[in-house]
Design a protein that fits this description.
The protein is mostly helical. Helix content is 41%, strand content 8%. It has a single domain (3-94), classed as Winged helix-like DNA-binding domain superfamily/Winged helix DNA-binding domain (Arc Repressor Mutant, subunit A, Orthogonal Bundle). It has helices at residues 3-12, 22-27, 35-42, 68-80, 92-95, and strands at residues 20-21, 54-55, 85-86, 89-90.
Length: 99
C-alpha cells in the first residue's frame, strides 16, 4: 500500500460531521508526514475520499488558495453534515475528530 493510500484510509475514517487538520492526518501515518505534505497529497485525492473533512488546524478552509470556489464547495459540504462554523472557520473545538 502506498503512503497516499494510507492517507486516503485515514481521511475516510473521519466521521460525517467531523473534521481533522492536515497535521492530524499526517500524524496518523507511519512514519508521520507533515501537514504540508498531506495538503499536497489531498489535491490528488480520489473521488471517494471526503477531502472536505480536512481543514487547517485553526479551522480555515485553505483549499480556497488553490481555487476560491473549492472553499465554497467545502463549506457547503461541511455545513450539510452539521459542522459548526465561527465566522469563516470551522469550530475546531466542537468538530475536531480525535483519531
Amino acid at each position: 500500500m502506498s503512503r497516499r493510500d494510507e492517507l486516503w484510509q485515514v481521511v475516510r475514517s473521519i466521521p460525517t460531521g467531523r473534521v481533522a487538520s492536515y497535521g492530524d492526518c499526517g500524524r496518523e501515518l507511519i512514519p508521520p508526514v507533515s501537514g504540508l505534505i498531506v495538503g499536497k497529497w489531498m489535491a490528488l485525492a480520489p473521488a471517494d475520499v471526503p477531502w472536505w473533512r480536512v481543514v487547517a488546524r485553526d479551522g480555515r478552509l485553505v483549499v480556497g488558495r488553490r481555487d476560491p470556489r473549492l472553499a465554497a464547495v467545502q463549506r457547503s459540504l461541511l455545513e450539510a453534515e452539521g459542522v459548526p462554523f465561527e465566522g469563516d472557520r470551522v469550530d475546531m473545538e466542537a468538530a475536531q475528530h480525535a483519531f
